[in-house]
């Protein structure tokens, strides 16, 4: 004859094991949904906030007229995939910096995507000049300028 406390203890142990298994499993454990800034290398694949950017994205200088002057502004383009289970829009910043000081910040976006859908993203640097000397590129959450 078993004592009731033994059954209770066995049941709690089984429940704890099932809970631990459930906590460790995930539909897609490799997808990071962190919004923490990520340092990336131009042209190399990266993951940020549940979005996967493919190898081959590029930074190009676009010559534009500004009155009598011609300026070169940066533009980043590539392919991004929504690795999340929900439909959403990609919106982020790429910050080019030298010795920790930003030299160019680009706002990037892609249209709404369902799970596993890919789209082209673009980061037009209309308000900055092409960074000529930088030692880091960081992808981070888009920050709206509220200073005005």
Task: Kindly describe this structure.
Mean pLDDT is 82; it is low at 1-30. It is built from 1 helix and 9 strands; from the N terminus they run αβββββββββ. Strands 2, 3, 4, 5 and 8 form a 5-stranded antiparallel sheet that branches. It has a 4-stranded antiparallel sheet with strand order 1-9-6-7, with no helix packed on it. It starts with a helix and ends in a 7-residue tail after the last strand. It is mainly beta and 148 residues long. 14% of the residues lie in helices and 47% in strands. It has one helix at 4-24, and strands spanning 38-40, 46-48, 51-53, 58-66, 69-82, 88-98, 101-113, 118-124, 136-141. The radius of gyration is 23 Å and the shape is globular.
Number of strands: 9
Q: Could you give a short account of the major beta sheet?
A: 5 strands, antiparallel
SS class: mainly beta
User: What are the segments in which pLDDT stays under 50 over at least 5 consecutive residues?
Assistant: 1-30
Output the radius of gyration: 23 Å
Q: Tell me, what's the shape?
A: globular
- Count of helices? 1
Give the H and E element order.
HEEEEEEEEE
Portion in helices: 10-25%
The CA-CA distance between the termini, in Å, is 77 Å
Mean pLDDT over the residues: 82
Percent of residues in β-strands:
over 45%
